[in-house]
Specification:
By secondary structure, the protein is α/β, with parallel strands linked by helices. The protein has one domain: Rossmann fold (3-Layer(aba) Sandwich), CATH 3.40.50. It is built from eight helices and seven strands; from the N terminus they run βαβαβαβαβααβααβ. It has a seven-stranded parallel beta sheet with strand order 3-2-1-4-5-6-7, sandwiched between helices. α3 (63-71) runs parallel beside α4. It starts with a strand and ends in a 6-residue tail after the last strand.
């Protein structure tokens, strides 16, 4: 049985990704930072879909914890680097500690999980890695300099790893999300949401399930690597 490992799997896009892989016939392992109740619900949903489930509490910024968690997943064939944090602040008000915290989760976490997973995928003879980025990593977001920069780093990391790992049969792709209706966007008021959607040609938020379907597509498409797939309702076109 093939297993998909998803970081940040206790809620939002991560939970939807776990469930999509479970329904596609994979066993599912997921990492989460602190939401025990959310993790239990993700595990319950995946088990109801017929998947074997492994839930691991892990700080993706901690090298030792990441190495232990990744090596605990049997049959690893897909890694989804989804764990992320946001920071909504003007650049002049952003502290160095805040900047580093955003990068530690969004960029360092993806690096640590990828580095730990690659030897497993090499021994298997190949596999897939999908990184979840943002359109702000492509075009920048006002008052989100740290977040935008960290997601841009993830896009560059995707392309470099894709070139490096393709000869070994490991495909690396990236999902670039626009506004997806998750708790990360909960700081926006109803008026701010309406204003944002005026600039979205499809006029609405994406759903976690739509993001999950795109991740599954990237993981299973055998002739795609190094790609950045936008899921943004046309925002950045």
């Amino acid at each position: 049985m093939s297993a998909a490992l998803v970081t940040g799997g206790s809620r939002g896009i991560g939970r939807a990704v776990c469930l999509a892989f479970a329904r596609a016939g994979y066993d599912v392992a997921f990492l989460y930072a602190h939401d025990d109740a959310g993790a239990a619900e993700t595990a319950r949903l995946c088990e109801a879909a017929g998947a074997g489930v492994l839930s691991l509490r892990c700080d993706v910024t901690c090298e030792a914890q990441v190495n232990e968690a990744v090596n605990a997943v049997p049959g690893l064939s897909v890694l989804v680097n989804n764990a992320g944090v946001a920071l909504y602040k003007q650049v002049q008000d952003t502290t160095l500690a805040e900047w580093r915290e955003v990068f530690s989760v969004n960029a360092d976490g993806a690096f640590l999980c990828t580095r730990a997973a690659v030897p497993r995928l090499l021994r298997r003879g190949g596999g897939a890695i999908v990184n979840v980025s943002s359109i702000w990593g492509e075009c920048g977001g006002a008052c989100e300099s740290a977040y935008s920069a960290s997601k841009a780093a993830l896009i560059g990391f995707t392309k470099a790893c894709a070139k490096e790992l393709a000869p070994s049969g490991i495909r690396v792709n990236c999902l670039s999300c626009g506004f997806v209706d998750t708790a990360m966007n909960g700081h926006l008021s109803p008026e701010e949401r309406r204003e944002f959607f005026r600039a979205v040609p499809l006029g609405r938020a994406g759903t976690p399930e739509e993001a999950a379907a795109a991740v599954l597509f990237l993981a299973e498409s055998r002739y795609l690597t190094g790609q950045v797939l936008r899921l943004d309702g046309g925002t950045a076109m």
